[in-house]
Write a structure and sequence with these properties.
The protein is α+β, with helices and mostly antiparallel strands and about 700 residues long. It contains 23 helices and 20 strands. Among the domains are: about 80 residues; about 110 residues, OB fold (Dihydrolipoamide Acetyltransferase, E2P), CATH 2.40.50; about 50 residues; about 150 residues, no CATH class.
């Protein structure tokens, strides 16, 4: 029996995933959907009209095609319904709204963040029903941080659509929120909201939130604070709001980010502990069933106290299926079990497919199951301690094989010391989880709880110390960027060479080598295009002006905030294989804001340098870039320079942007708003052309 026959859920899963992907990246007409639906039903009914067994066997592919089409349509429709449910109504109109909070408070620098669901809004002096989920930011004050899950607020605000992608290769925040089911955002000043009540109805999410807050209070009770509290809360309860940015960066650079989000590692640890505790229930089938029921309830209890986040629910569901398979003594069906859990997760929410955590979790688990056994055979040992160390390292290596393409695609970096990290961090993090479970269990026993809390604090401190030291090692990170084509090709390399390892056939070997060659070809193509390119890019920054000059692979930058620019442009630079940026100033490139790039005359106006300037004849320029929160007087500016095109960056207020637009229309000047249209990109051919 081949792999596909042993794992029927992989075929069901692939068909369903195809429907999800097609919905997000293509559009099918309703007539096409109906046609495919009726065709799938017809194909599914064919076996009922064929009586002869031999013919049924010969035409079984028709039934399989019907199943594929039916699940394809199901994936498409479920994605459509999920997308429709995420839409927010009403949008982009200022008014009075009643919302209900569906999350605990999260403190930001100048605001307090909540997730909220709209209940109703005031329209023509009558209350009408609204729908949708939103992210709201209340101005930080003495009241905004004291709200709880279920509180109802009356707001005077304008709910806006999430900001669309403005910069090339940037983070698409709007799409991200859409796939989280969030359709709007709003900021509310202190005087524009008030609490009007509390929803007393039963809510599992509210109870989970309250339970997690109670357990966090136990940590605080034993004086666990600062970085120790931040890591402990994230590691054990999935609460990441107290994690400092520098510490997050350290965990990322050392390859230990996965331990900060409660997921498969943590649920697996809990599962292993429970298997050990209830190992005595193994004498007969009734005891085995009882054991699995108890373990499953305990795992879902852990998911409950961590806030029922998608990653925890996903991991818990996966281990529930694993526990069930073990109870039925079907360990050989582990792949089918994993694919089954993924299938049911995507049935609940098709958008999980695009969640980075979902992709990394399943790729890591599948990779460990597939690669660890052959890797173990390569390093045989009978020594107990060496065996433990070997297994720990090989689990890490196996997981990295499956997750590395995703890591390089999403983050453009690879932790070089991941083996050292996992050798040190995994035992320590496991110890922290055990001690934390112990502290929560004995928190009411005076002296014992104090001793456990002391050991827990030391363990977390040691964990943080190891992480920081690994980050500071030389060459801790390699910056490698992959585009989507290269990512797919690398997965093909992994699958093909793995298939060759098991069956020793030429075709998968050839396919793997060809895929590897194509990865190199795509990389060379990107570098070749970069070396041929010359362009000007005005990036969309929140606070500052950023102008990028690309000259055959060289990277020149004019900016008023290099930190912000690194955040919004580094992905683009890496994906296009550009050199490290060279920051420009008035002294080495510009003269009073004026510059020339391949014959294109440019003025970057970020201050009042043209104020009270008088010229007999305005200077002709090609591009006028206005930014840095300037409040320009266009009559004064146009009396000094005559541009062909005016580009207004995102830092300019909406009022001044509209004023500049009107002035451009009046004088016949081309106008471009970075805030509305996204980053301005000008490709310069060999001959100047605007």
């Amino acid at each position: 029996m081949n792999f596909l026959q042993r794992t029927p859920f992989i075929r069901l899963l692939l068909a369903y995933i195809c429907g999800i992907v097609v919905y997000h990246y293509a559009e099918l007409f309703p007539a096409t959907l109906w046609s495919l639906f009726f065709l799938s039903i017809a194909l599914l009914l064919i076996p009922f009209f064929i009586r002869e067994t031999r013919l049924q066997f010969n035409f079984r592919w028709l039934f399989g095609t019907g199943v594929f089409l039916f699940l394809f349509i199901t994936g498409y429709i479920f994605s459509f319904e999920r997308d429709k449910a995420s839409k927010f109504y009403p949008l982009n109109q200022k008014g009075i709204y009643v919302v209900e909070l569906t999350s605990a408070p999260v403190e930001k620098a100048k605001s307090v963040f909540y997730t909220a669901e709209i209940k109703k809004f005031l329209h023509n002096r009558h209350w009408e029903s609204g729908h949708g989920k939103a992210y709201i930011y209340l101005q930080k004050d003495s009241l905004s941080g004291n709200l709880v899950f279920g509180d109802r607020l009356m707001l005077e605000t304008e709910f806006k659509s999430p900001e669309k992608l403005l910069n090339p290769d940037g983070f698409d925040y709007a799409t991200y929120l859409k796939r989280q089911g969030v359709g709007a955002t709003a900021y509310i000043a202190s005087q524009h909201w008030q609490k009007i009540g509390h929803n007393q109805a039963f809510s599992i999410r509210r109870m989970a939130d309250q339970c997690r807050n109670y357990l966090l209070g136990i940590y605080r009770k034993f004086n666990i604070q600062g970085n120790e509290f931040g890591v402990l809360a994230a590691l054990t309860l999935g609460y990441t709001e107290d994690l400092q940015p520098d510490l997050r960066k350290s965990f990322s650079a050392s390859g230990a980010t996965h331990i900060l989000s409660v997921s498969g590692l943590h649920v697996g640890t809990v599962y292993a502990v429970l298997l050990f505790i209830f190992g005595f229930l193994n004498h007969n089938q009734r005891q085995k069933i009882s054991k699995i029921i108890i373990i499953t309830l305990c795992m879902w209890g852990y998911a409950f106290i961590t806030g029922l986040s998608p990653s925890v629910v996903r991991a818990t569901l996966m281990f529930t299926f694993v526990a069930l398979a073990n109870c039925l003594e079907r360990k050989s069906q582990i792949y089918n079990t994993i694919f089954m859990s993924a299938f049911f997760m995507l049935l609940v929410n098709p958008n999980f497919l695009f969640d980075i955590g979902f992709q990394l979790s399943y790729s890591a688990v599948l990779s460990i199951i597939f690669f660890q056994p052959p890797l173990t055979k390569l390093l045989p040992t009978n020594h107990r301690f060496l065996k433990w160390g070997r297994d720990l390292l090989l689990v890490s290596v196996a997981a990295q094989i499956g997750t590395a393409p995703f890591t390089l695609y999403y983050f453009q970096q690879f932790p070089n010391y991941f083996l050292l990290t996992n050798l040190l961090v995994l035992p320590l993090s496991t110890l922290v989880i055990y001690l934390a479970m112990g502290l929560l269990a004995v928190s009411f026993i005076p002296y014992l709880s104090t001793a456990v809390a002391f050991l827990l604090k030391i363990s977390v401190g040691l964990l943080n110390f190891c992480i920081v030291q690994i980050e500071h090692l030389p060459y801790s990170l390699s910056y490698i960027s992959l585009d989507i084509k290269q990512t797919i090709l690398i997965f093909m390399v992994i699958f093909s060479l793995s298939a060759y390892y098991y069956n020793k056939k030429f075709v998968p070997l050839a396919l793997g080598l060809i895929s590897l060659l194509l990865v190199c070809v795509v990389d060379l193509q990107i570098k070749y295009n970069t070396l041929r390119n010359q362009k000007i890019i005005v990036f969309a920054g929140q606070k500052s002006t950023h102008v990028n000059f690309i000259d055959h692979g060289k990277n020149y930058v004019y900016t008023t905030d290099s930190v912000e620019l690194e955040k919004i442009a580094s992905n683009y630079w890496r994906k296009n294989k550009l050199q490290n940026p060279e920051y420009l100033s008035n002294s080495n490139w510009f003269e009073n804001g004026f510059a020339s790039f391949y014959g294109i005359k440019i003025l970057i106006l970020t201050d009042e340098q043209l104020k009270r300037k008088v010229t007999e004849t305005p200077l002709n320029i090609d591009l006028l870039i206005i930014g840095n929160h300037l409040k320009p007087r266009m009559d004064q500016i146009l009396s000094c320079v005559q541009p062909q095109k005016i580009i207004v960056d995102k830092s300019i207020s909406k009022w001044y942007t509209n004023d500049i637009r009107q002035q451009c229309e009046k004088h016949g000047i081309e106008f471009y708003s970075v805030a509305d249209q996204g980053a301005y990109i000008l490709d310069i051919p060999n001959k100047k052309s605007l």
